[in-house]
Write a structure and sequence with these properties.
Blueprint (H helix, E strand, L loop, with lengths): L14 H39 L6 H8 L1 H11 L1 H10 L1 H10 L1 H4 L2 H17 L5 H29 L5 H7 L8 H26 L5 H27 L7 H21 L10 H58 L5 H13 L23 E3 L1 H10 L14 H15 L14 H9 L13 H4 L11 E3 L1 H10 L14 H11 L1 H13 L2
Helix pairs in contact: 1-2, 1-3, 1-4, 1-8, 1-10, 4-5, 5-8, 7-8, 8-10, 10-11, 11-12, 12-13, 14-16, 17-20, 19-20
């Protein structure tokens, strides 16, 4: 198989390019997530602050803040697709392992986001109209929104700790796990960053001409940056063994930029200091760079092992690749325009070339394939089975073939196995004891005339209609003695041999009798 069509694909781009793309796309996504999350939290906090001061406060400025959430959330969601796709390719082993382990929470992200976005939009539209309804929508909406980064940070924290995967799979989330403090601190760090960047965004965006709001946002920015410093140092303590020179360099630059930003914000002012526009990106980029370096170092050995295993599998399959391609090419060139070709391609895998029901795929079937060589059946009955399949078995429907092709297949079946030959008449009369057994046990599913009773029709698969089909005496005797696996037909080996012989004769007598009736009535 060619390298570019192999199951085990190489990276679409060099690994360094993939890392760069992941850094850029995740950075853009995270930036708008922080702005969107910070906007939502601040808007709700400002609303609560005003609501506590007076029952129906004016919300003109807060409406402006809340309505900016729409554009920010759109960009955050759209830009989130890129890093997820890159992670699936560049860290496939770790990504898919953890998303499966975290599946119950991972799948909750979609309903949580839908709930959060709808309720926060309702909050923004009800700020002035109905304060209490806005309060409920805001609390629930922001609560749902804050749950999403908890899931993401949890998944990323676990993804960076391959040694904890087996324990997590066995025990789930436990407070005593060594990665739990890191997860909590990492989550608080994200929330703090959201408040900082949300406050900075609205300081420059929505409070440029409003001195009181600008002073309020500066206080929030100072407080959130100070919290970031405290949480950041605590977070640093959870990863001390993983620290390397590049990581320490990035963290040091970020800490220096954060300290400078706090010093700039120190004097209370109504103006927005534009030096922050240079410092905040430095804080963001250095912290994100440190995070990605830690992630690559943590997942590197596992990813290398998974890549080596894939390469080994490629080498193991290489000797069979050309053979598989040649076999596939033969199938592509096969034209299903005659009965023999259709049988060989569609029927032979289960029924076998000799029709005995022991084809190469027959061992996979719960209900054994029919022994076509022992079957004597009406042509129209066979047509129905081929078109509709047999419910409860591995026999599928073949409606993809038109009437002409199915007729050609039926001709091939008759030519190979004499399937449509007449059923021989009963060789002898049966004993009254055997007839009583038939009526007492067999007639519950097989009706008195050989058709199928209501009980039989309810089975999956239903028993055959003996008026339209029969099998050889030897085959019937074997089924009666051993039963038919995967069906409701039990074994009757406890019956005397003479009775079983008679039951086989009875089951094969209906088709012959039915044909005689049809001949006499001219049907």
């Amino acid at each position: 198989m060619q390298q570019w069509t192999d199951l085990f694909l190489n990276m679409p781009l060099p690994e360094s390019w993939m890392r760069g793309l992941l850094f850029i796309t995740f950075g853009l996504h995270l930036l708008f997530v922080l702005l969107m999350l910070g906007t939502a939290i601040l808007s709700l906090l400002f609303f609560l602050r005003d609501l506590l001061r007076q029952p129906s406060p004016p919300q003109h400025w807060n409406e402006h803040v809340a309505h900016s959430h729409m554009g920010l959330k759109s960009l955050a969601v759209v830009l989130g697709v890129g890093p997820l796709l890159i992670m699936q390719v560049s860290h496939s082993h770790a990504f898919f392992t953890v998303t499966v382990l975290f599946s119950y929470a991972w799948l909750a992200i979609i309903p949580l986001l839908i709930t959060a976005f709808l309720l926060f939009d309702a909050f923004a539209h009800k700020l002035s109209a109905n304060a209490w309804l806005a309060l409920i929508c805001g609390l629930v909406g922001v609560g749902a929104l804050l749950t999403v980064p908890a899931i993401f940070t949890g998944a990323l924290t676990l993804m960076e700790r391959p040694a904890s995967w087996a324990d997590f799979a066995a025990r789930g989330i436990r407070m005593d796990t060594d990665w739990m403090p890191h997860w909590v601190l990492r989550y608080l760090h994200i929330v703090g960053a959201a408040l900082a960047f949300g406050a900075a965004f609205h300081l420059f965006y929505s409070a440029r001409n409003d001195a009181p709001k600008a002073r309020l946002l500066r206080k929030w920015l100072i407080g959130s940056l100070a919290v970031q410093a405290v949480v950041g140092f605590a977070l640093l303590a959870t990863i001390l063994p993983q620290l390397s020179s590049p990581v320490l360099t990035a963290i040091s630059l970020g800490a220096l930029a954060l300290g400078t930003a706090l010093w700039i914000l120190r004097p209370e002012s109504a103006a927005a200091d534009y030096r922050l526009l240079a410092l905040l990106p430095i804080i963001f980029v250095t912290m994100l760079l440190a995070r990605q370096l830690l992630q690559l170092e943590a997942m590197g050995p596992t990813q290398a092992e998974a890549t080596a295993q894939r390469q080994q599998k490629v080498e193991e399959l290489a000797p069979f690749s050309q053979k598989a391609l040649d076999a596939f090419a033969v199938k592509l060139r096969t034209v299903y325009d005659n009965g023999d070709t259709i049988y060989d391609g569609a029927c032979e895998p289960c029924h076998g070339l000799d029709g005995r029901g022991v084809g190469p795929e027959s061992h996979r079937l719960r209900t054994p394939a029919t022994d076509l060589a022992a079957l004597r059946i009406d042509r129209d009955y066979a047509y129905e089975m081929i078109c509709d399949g047999t419910p409860g078995t591995g026999m599928p429907y073949f409606r993809m073939f038109d009437r002409e092709k199915i007729d050609a297949l039926l001709d091939a079946l008759d030519r190979r196995f004499a399937m449509f030959a007449a059923t021989p008449p009963p060789p002898r009369d049966i004993s009254p004891e055997s007839l009583e057994v038939w009526i007492g046990m067999c007639a519950k599913c097989h009706a008195a005339d050989g058709s199928v009773t209501a009980t039989g029709k309810a089975m999956q698969p239903p028993p055959p209609d003996f008026r339209r089909s029969s099998v050889s005496h030897e085959r019937a005797l074997k089924i009666i003695t051993e039963g038919y696996p995967g069906t409701g037909m039990p074994a009757y080996r406890n019956q005397p041999a003479k009775v079983r012989e008679d039951l086989a004769i009875i089951s094969n007598s209906f088709r012959a009798a039915h044909k005689k009736t049809e001949t006499r009535t001219g049907r």
